[in-house]
Amino acid sequence: xxxxLLGRFAARAPVPVFPAVGRDGEVRLDVLSLAxxxxxxxxxxxxxxxxxxxxxxxxxxxxxxxxxDQLAHPRATLWWGTQPxxxxxxxxxxxxxxxxxxxxxxxxxxxLTGGHTSETHWLADEPPNPWRGRGDHGQGGEGMMxxxxxxxxxxxxxxxxxxxxxxxxxxxxxxxxxxxxxxxGLVLEITLQGDxxxxxxxxxxxxxxxxxxxAPFDRVLHEATPVAAIERARAAHHLRCVARLLGILQLAxxxxxxxxxxxxxxxxxxxxxAPLRKTLRRxxxxxxxxxxxxxxxxxxxxxxxxxxxxxxxxARDRRETAPAYxxxxxxxxxxxxxxxRARFTQWLDEAEQALALARAAGDAxxxxxxxxxxxxxxxxxxxxxRLTDMLPGLEWGEALLTIASFDAAAVCRMAPxxxxxx
Amino acid sequence: xTLTALLLVAAALIGIGLYGxxxxxxxxxxxxxxxxxxxxxxxxxxxxxxxxxxGAPAGQLLVIxxxxxxxxxxxxGFALIAAVYRNRQxxxxxxxxxxxx
Amino acid sequence: xVFWVFSAxxxxxxxxxxxxxxxxxxxxxxxxxxxxxxxxxxLLNAPYLGFATIFMMGVEMMVMALFMVMFMMNPAGLNPMMxxxxxxxxxxxxxxxFVGLAIAIFTTGFPHDPVAAGRPVIHDLGRELxxxxxxxxxxAGVTLLATMVASVILSSRSGRxxxxxxxxxxxxxEPGGEPAGRRPDDEGGGHAHHHH
Amino acid sequence: MTLLIxxxxxxxxxxxxxxxxxxxxxxxxxxxxxxxxxxxxxLYGAAALLRQQQNRTEAPDLxxxxxxxxxxxxxxxxxVAVVPLAPGDILADLQAGIVLWGAVEALTVVVVFLHGWSxxxxxxxIGAYRYVAIGLPVMLLSMFVLIAAALPAESLAVSxxxxxxxxxxxxxxxxxxxxxxxxxxxxxxFRGPFNYADSADLAGGTAAEVSGASRLLWExxxxxxxxxxxxxxxxxxxxxxxxxxxxxPLWLLxxxxxxxxxxxxxxxxxxxxxPARMLTLLWVVLLPLAFVDLLWAGVVAL
Lengths: 422, 101, 196, 302
Prior knowledge:
heterotetramer; A: alpha/beta; Rossmann fold; five-stranded parallel sheet; three-stranded antiparallel sheet; 36% helix; globular; B: mainly alpha; Helix Hairpins
């Protein structure tokens, strides 16, 4: 009795959901995260429902299973717009076009009141790496210096000096593809000394901008598209990028407000971004990003293109010459810094400008097949400039800020799968 | 709680501390031994002050000075360890087997 | 009774410090020992000294744990850690110290003069520190200042005679073996290493 | 005495609930959405955590991991115990009440470190280390501030500090004290700009691997700790139970609530600096400010 009462109480709490974002799953998750009945959490340990949003690569299936097994009982999985795992039996699915909000609520209620049994492990419950060698814990060592636990000798391994000559023990681990603070799909193998990144290598590249984000821009290929629609999509994209960065700065409510604003913009609302900007300035969001963090030079910027290039003073924008923008008094906006703060400011500036353009455009349209400036840079080919070269020496939070300051296309080009640190 | 019992506990702490300070190879563990001995000293001093000296203020002063000594020992100890570590990349007493590097 | 519980905690925790495999556990066991002694001080009508011991040692042991993890080669306690030298001698010395002190305790007659209940001990201490014993107290302060300066100089990398890690050689894996680990001299070469 | 113990438990429970409600309201206000259900949300959330099973990581230090949340709550409770509710109505009327607070602060750093360390998990461990680096200097400056507040009372007892404010509150006497002490509050419960232990970039930091009842206890302790700091701050700087017309405990409640609103607002309105920059700020700007506060208090007391 007491248990069922507790269950009924618990069912009225926001549904704790851990999202595993696959290909094309990011934007719709951003929208879903605004639902008051849900709470999108950062750690699978805090969640009761695993929401798989978008297609999972074959290479990520093991990671997904590992994340699933970390959820505490009672737990369940909901597949949103993707094929469920073959061996999961009666899997719960929701089509990509639908919102899974009610399905999640219902599933959570049944989970807590006993209507839905908690899922068992997908993987065998054993350590991912077998313990090697001897010792009480099978760790392979004996005595202070003896043995080679986990395949590494005991004295400090050779590590480059990053700070003050006091080398600390290093730790290597893979991060991603479902770590919410990294771009979806990106798996990095990072070696850390404390919270300072020693070296990083790409294990799996991130996804290119998803279908939801690029649809308005792809539309131009098939039909004439209103300038207003394009610019609204741009503003929404930039605000979502800003939101990701704000999350790392510990500004969750402000990030949610950005996402909410982005959604309103997509739905055609007329919004003044000045108050949001003021809130962010008062919160110290600009000042909290260290000056000169994650700089890119002119050649690098030219290769990336898009807002990242304009944030490094490369005044290149297709809209300057586009006929549809001729009467709109378009002026390319630039920042001079080329660092994380400049890219952050650039996104906000461009979002504001895009909204102004959308208002001024009336029913001006971009004709079918005309070149259109996307909200990100060039999508291909892999760049000679590597994300992994930027990270060594940065503190964990700064490294995340640096990665989050690039749009998906830029990260994708700078983090190709290949030989790192030749 | 008698003074004798209290002093016995303090003596036990000092004994264990001495064992640690003499036996440990790591500098930090060695310092733990010293700290444990000083812990015993603190206990004995407060015991004397409280049960045998009628609360004479100078007894508390002694404890405060002992605490200052502990702080000095910690600070200088860790500074020395940092210096040794820079030079030998180890905090083992055995690593200091020569006077020069 | 309470006294005996705290005493047992203090002694057992102090002993376990040298038996555990983990650095962090070792320093926090020592902290437990200090907290127990602080609690005994509270029983002995020394509120200021008791709390001050707990709070000072909390900070000290935290710093100690960090230093242990930074400098030790086996911080997590995965390998059995028995890093001792002259072990038997140390045990004998420790035991001898205890026995000697115990004999001294039992053979000495101590006066019985407990603190009067309600005596303003903290007030007394303040008066003493800034009154008759001002000079001692102040010299302790100056010593602490000197310690701060000295420890910064000792631990900094740049020194009067060049960098502190000049010519630094890492320890070998076995006694007398080849040095293993990082050598500050040939820096830069280590960048290609990855540990999987 | 029974009444005192009852009110002590009530302060912890009610204080934590208040902070949780204020959090919900602040989030709704900043996000510009409706704040419906803010009053009951903490209770439902607690029920949800109770229904969740506890988990285990690979080879954790189980004793410390399970103990840390309880110890943290115990520290918050010890902090509240020295706050006088009315003249003479104080659960632990200690001669050295302020020093007990110092011990609470120091041990909080230890407990949070243990919580992150014992999970045997990467991000939790980083959170633990970061918290020690930030927590120690913050604790240091709060000690200066507390000593300064004890100066006019010529006593380390909290009740004497309240009585010394009959003529003038310490917040007027030592204007730097209260803001610096509130920073300590954010740091002790690691919130917002001082969230270095359980931060968003670490996916929850020391609590990243915790679920179920352990997590409930941990989050409850965080909220209770903030309430404890607010109660202590209103006692030491705003005259505690002193005030005209209304009864003493009510005044204490009002002042604590006002401080809680300030603390909760500050924890959602400001961005977090990177740990290295926060350390510089602490040692170079805030610690000297605490010195100035102490010096000021000394000169005024003379």
